[in-house]
Specification:
The chain is an alpha+beta fold. 30% of the residues lie in helices and 28% in strands. α6 runs antiparallel to α7, α8 packs antiparallel against α9 and α10 runs antiparallel to α11.
């Protein structure tokens, strides 16, 4: 059934008790994420022990370094000091041991409205709330002494990294250990070019400067992934505050000097602004909002956390689910406008690499048309507006694909189909490259590219006709019928009842892959109804799982059902059997076409229930990038992925629509 407020997990599934938290096998494999909606994020595990180099309490894209993410504040260790002894609430992994082991004092964790932890030390109970201020570069931590029979001292010890999120740092003599005195705190700029990080508190207390290095912290996930996984963090000193029962103190880390008198008001305001996470749909909405980044004059979509940036392809595929399915047409248009402003020779930027923008996605421009189609489902009267805004862009894209001037040998052949690719490049979404060679090269006629091309042409012609602009698109009017005459002859495998994945000079590639689903799911399909059914049934039998579609049939000798190990091993499995949730939206759009509502809705509901279960797994309150191909389909990859969340939202709305 569709998750509702009566669901078994309502209100409870984002809460974790002491038994769960002290079990590190459990709690360290569950990660939290909070963003400032401007590109910055906070991410760590439930007990606040960093297990990735990408973890940190303040990770920011720095314009001084090409907008790449940098970890400034790695973590904050806390210590309760009583007249009897000291109790360190922090936790770190070192080679072969954890020290300190502050997780043993944890008694509760609640994710809503903001990540909140409760610690109990004897008769003392301390609440710790984490908050990343929206649209600012400021992280706040509020401590509340909820119970204490006597006054205590609280030490707040920040640990700094000041390094690229993809790298690690080590003790050195270059770091600037001098600090700038500010109101109730200090500012540090460890290295030239970085912003100064100002750490302040709103209660009168002592700042004890004690610069030193915290050596050999181990990030387990990086070691398991075959990367360097040890670094040294800089400890500038600590705040020491005297507190009694009922007292609160707020720690702030910001790239600007803040007015400490405003901390309480700001914290309360920000807490009230946080969206509800009291249901499955609430969590999806909150997760969707975290991918939308408003920075300067651009609105962009982050492909996934914690290590992805913006990707053109991912943006177009995810955008309808992240915005339109939630009734947000305004943000959808802002994202489109931002990308259109970066288009070059009919191609959209795929991603940024250091100081270069790459235009190496053959399908990103074609997914642009699909977003416009989805838009018109929400705004039925928007045809004239869309043509006025994007008609020129649409025609520029079609020109690029037909005139042979697109890069990477992207061109329309005499049969109307799109040929693409050059040796050494992977231009489709199956883009893993190992030792300079694509794992799934797919050069030639790729099935989903030709399906997207046909859909783009038919949509452009229909939209132009609707707004009285047929003459402007007349040169493309005969291409759809040309494609209809050749598509099935090129791709359809009669004996197996499915579509070849791609066709090159050597003929058809007969691997059973999910890319063929788009030839049916898109609004304009070139496949006749009888063969649509055969294709969908083949996909159901070979590729469908409760978590998504496999990227390769298990019967194929190249199939890899596990996803683990170093980067080379993982990349070799990335599209060779690994399950991708984002494909499910298109699977159900196809399934209902051939099997109808009665057969489709129960299956979609079952899938949705399994994703609800995932709200307490891996990335808390979100949907991961991928799952393993073999049961039980463990979560893998990025903890929160834009197109995964987007397509689960589309499935939810799909069910709600067809049940009404």
């Amino acid at each position: 059934m569709v998750p509702t407020k009566n669901s078994i997990y309502y209100m409870e599934y984002l809460t974790f008790n002491k038994e769960s938290l002290v079990n590190l096998e459990y709690s360290l494999n569950r990660e939290i994420l909070s963003t400032n909606r401007a590109g910055g994020y906070l991410s760590t595990t439930l007990p606040l022990c960093n297990t990735r180099k990408y973890h940190g309490l303040m990770v920011l894209p720095l314009p001084e370094f090409n907008g790449e993410n940098h970890v400034l504040l790695s973590c904050v260790d806390d210590k309760i000091v009583t007249h009897e002894r000291n109790f360190n609430l922090g936790i770190h992994k070192f080679p072969e041991k954890y020290s300190p082991k502050g997780h043993k004092y944890l008694v509760d964790f609640k994710y809503s409205p903001t990540p909140t932890l409760w610690y109990r030390v004897g008769n003392i109970q301390l609440k710790k709330e984490l908050l990343f201020v929206h649209n600012k570069e400021q992280v706040m931590i509020r401590y509340t002494v909820e119970k204490s029979p006597y006054p205590i001292k609280l030490e707040i010890n920040p640990l700094l990294a000041f390094r690229n999120a993809h790298a690690l740092t080590h003790a050195n003599l270059v770091a600037n250990t001098k600090y700038e005195e500010v109101e109730r705190g200090a500012g540090y700029q460890l290295y030239a070019g970085f912003p100064t990080l100002y750490m302040q508190v709103n209660k009168k207390c002592d700042w004890v400067a004690n610069p030193s290095w915290f050596y050999n912290v181990e990030y387990k996930e990086e070691v398991d992934r075959g990367y360097e996984g040890h670094e040294d963090l800089f400890m500038p000193g600590y705040f020491e505050a005297s507190l009694k029962e009922g007292d609160k103190i707020i720690f702030s880390a910001s790239t600007e000097v803040c007015n400490v008198k405003q901390f309480t008001r700001l914290f309360n305001q920000e807490t009230k602004r946080r969206p509800s996470k009291a249901s499955f749909e609430d969590c999806l909405r909150n997760s969707a909002s975290q991918f939308i980044v408003h920075n300067k004059k651009k609105t962009q979509v982050i492909a996934g956390y914690p290590w992805f940036g913006r990707w053109g392809r991912d943006t177009f595929i995810a955008l309808p689910g992240l915005t339109l399915s939630l009734g947000d047409t305004k943000t959808c248009l802002k994202v489109l406008d931002s990308l259109v402003g970066e288009m070059k020779d009919g191609m959209f930027p795929n991603t940024d690499l250091e100081d270069a923008t790459l235009f190496n996605s053959v399908d990103a421009p074609l997914w642009f048309f699909w977003v416009l189609q989805r838009y018109l489902e929400v705004d039925e009267d928007g045809s004239a507006m869309l043509w006025k805004k994007y008609g020129k862009t649409m025609m520029e894209i079609l020109d690029a694909y037909t005139n042979g001037k697109a890069p990477y040998n992207i061109q329309m052949k005499e049969n109307g189909l799109i040929w693409q690719g050059e040796e050494g490049y992977a231009l489709t979404w199956m883009d893993a490259v190992v030792d300079g060679k694509p794992v799934t090269p797919r050069r030639g006629y790729a099935v989903e590219i030709c399906a997207l091309w046909y859909n783009a042409l038919r949509f452009t012609l229909s939209l132009a006709k609707k707004v009285g602009k047929e003459k402007k698109v007349g040169k493309w009017k005969d291409i759809p019928s040309l494609i209809e005459r050749h598509f099935m002859d090129v791709f359809y495998v009669e004996k197996g009842g499915y579509l070849a994945d791609y066709v090159d000079e050597n003929g058809r590639n007969l691997d059973v892959r999910p890319n063929q689903i788009f030839a049916i799911s898109l609004p304009f399909s070139v496949v006749d109804p009888d063969r649509q059914r055969r294709i969908v049934d083949r996909i159901r039998s070979d590729l469908f799982t409760i978590k998504g579609l496999r990227t390769l049939s298990p019967s194929n000798f190249q199939y890899k059902g596990k996803y683990y190990g170093d980067q080379k091993t993982r990349d070799n499995a990335y599209h060779q059997g690994t399950v991708w949730p984002w494909l499910l939206g298109h699977f159900f759009a196809s399934y209902i076409k051939v099997h109808g509502r009665a057969a489709t809705i129960p299956l979609a509901e079952e899938v949705l229930q399994r994703f609800e279960d995932d709200m307490v797994q891996y990335g808390i309150g979100s949907i991961p990038e991928i799952y393993e191909g073999d049961p039980p389909h463990y979560s893998r990859g990025a903890i929160s992925q834009a197109w995964s969340v987007a397509e689960v939202i589309r499935i939810l709305k799909f069910i709600q629509k067809h049940k009404n």
